[in-house]
Amino acid sequence: MADGRAAGRFTGAIVIVTGGGSGIGAATAHRFAAEGATVVITGRTQEKLDKVVADAPAGSTMVARVADTSDEQGVSQLIADVVAEHGRLDTLVNNAAVAEPGTVEDLDSDAWRRVMATDVDGVFFASRAALPHLREVGGSIVNVGSVSGLGGDWSMAAYNAAKGAVTNLTNAMALDHGGQGVRVNAVHPSLTVTEMSEGPRSDDDTMAAFRQRIPIGRAAEPAEVADVIAFLASHDARFVNGAHIPVDGGLGASNGQPNMG
């Protein structure tokens, strides 16, 4: 892994960011690229990925690959291809996620499975494929969870359950693989200005209510979450393993009700 004490903390590093076509994923990709990494972003829509690459910091290296992380064979092949092309893998950021609004009574089975397939299976498949390569270089995994995985949240039963699974999967991987030199940590955003937050439950009154619960008084910007992800992947966090960092503007400190990240 590139020494984080250097001016470019990730110079020479190879980083994969899933769900890199917008929001937190795009901001994270740009942050790593700005600090010297070669970044591979994945997503389901070529047009979105191409725009992120086009907006990358000048002089940086970023590659777009269409991939669905819920596709076990597809994501395994993606990671194998990245390592074959670049010779190594230093960091995996599991960011890809979807949300379907509804209570347990409201959700149909297909909606439930869509959320679990991307938000949980995708983390499992990508991490399993990446671990042998990360072990070789002392790399790390950063999972993007949500405050909705740390506590309850109204009418988002599938998303809450999936992000709760990501929380404990992070714990399990940190225990199992920390001694092998692979650190595994998670960030847990609260309301963030992304396409997802502008989808389910995005009416003005609901968004205003969410913001009122956050002591800082606003939603996070994707770049503010990316800052924490980059820290966790860096040499600066070399003794941080199994950590769960809420990026929530103080929501947890206020004992407020979590809301969709």
Automatic annotation (TrEMBL):
A GO molecular-function descriptor: oxidoreductase activity
Keywords of the record: Oxidoreductase
Domain of life where this protein originates: Bacteria
CDD domains named among the record's database cross-references: SDR_c
Record's keyword annotation contains Cell inner membrane: no
Family annotation (PROSITE patterns): ADH_SHORT
EC number, as in UniProt: 1.-.-.-
Similarity section: Belongs to the short-chain dehydrogenases/reductases (SDR) family.
Protein name as it appears in the record: SDR family oxidoreductase
Organism: Actinomycetospora flava
